[in-house]
Design goal:
Layout (H helix, E strand, L loop, with lengths): L3 H21 L19 H25 L6 H20 L18 H25 L7
Amino acid sequence: MADTQVQDYVAQMAAAQQQVLDALTDLERSDMRFKTEQWRWNTVRRVLLRFGDHVREHTTQLIEAREAAGAAQTMPQRILAQAMEAYGYWMGAMVGLCDEDLDKSPAPGEWTPRQVLEHVISSQIGYLETIRNAQETREVVEKD
């Protein structure tokens, strides 16, 4: 992704998401019934639901606009987009995770959250290195 304007939008969205997480991760269940000034989404709960709904709605619109402009994703880009969806799901699983919970195993012999996180992070880097090495050697496999 070499286009700096596109990178700026990605960075702005990441920053906005971080603001939301920083401000709302510790929201209490009882806070969800608070009235808002929005006529359509009149409670905190309804506005919380809009975070995901709104992004999904406009993601569909963005995909349509790209396709109409002849800028549809390539197959590698679609695969990476699906990886980003998984990343979003992973990030969602991180919401509210506390440092004191990092070393708690769900059952004897099962991985702790820390072990899972470290494994996923190191695997991501390993997969990237594998692809970079393959790009350097450029050896083609006829059937994968």
